[in-house]
Design brief:
Number of strands: 0
Radius of gyration: 23 Å
Number of helices: 3
Largest sheet: none
Number of domains: 1
Strand content: under 5%
Helix content: over 70%
Order of helices and strands: HHH
Keywords: Membrane, Transmembrane, Transmembrane helix
Length: 114
Amino acid sequence: MSGNNHQNDKTSEASNEKKPSQRRVKSKKMEYLGAIIGNFVLLYIVNHLMQWHIPFITENFYKVLPYMNWSIGASIVVNILYIFFDQKFIRLGTVPVLNILSLLSVFISTFAHK
């Protein structure tokens, strides 16, 4: 009887070894999905700020809006890509592009009123 318990213990250990990596993959995919949803919410907010008549948002905001949309849209696309292809070399290629787009958006927004 103790032999069967030992064999069952090995089987449960083997199945437990696979579970953490499967959980990590699932967790990463949920992070990417959360980022996609968050970016869609941000996209909605950014595109409706002028309609909400917030006092510190000026007409110059329309000059910046396309760049912000491009930056947020690129982030959505990249996170969708990560759900299906989550390899390190893809992240190494896409993260700098996203950072440049974000920086460009901030840079243009800073100097749009001049």
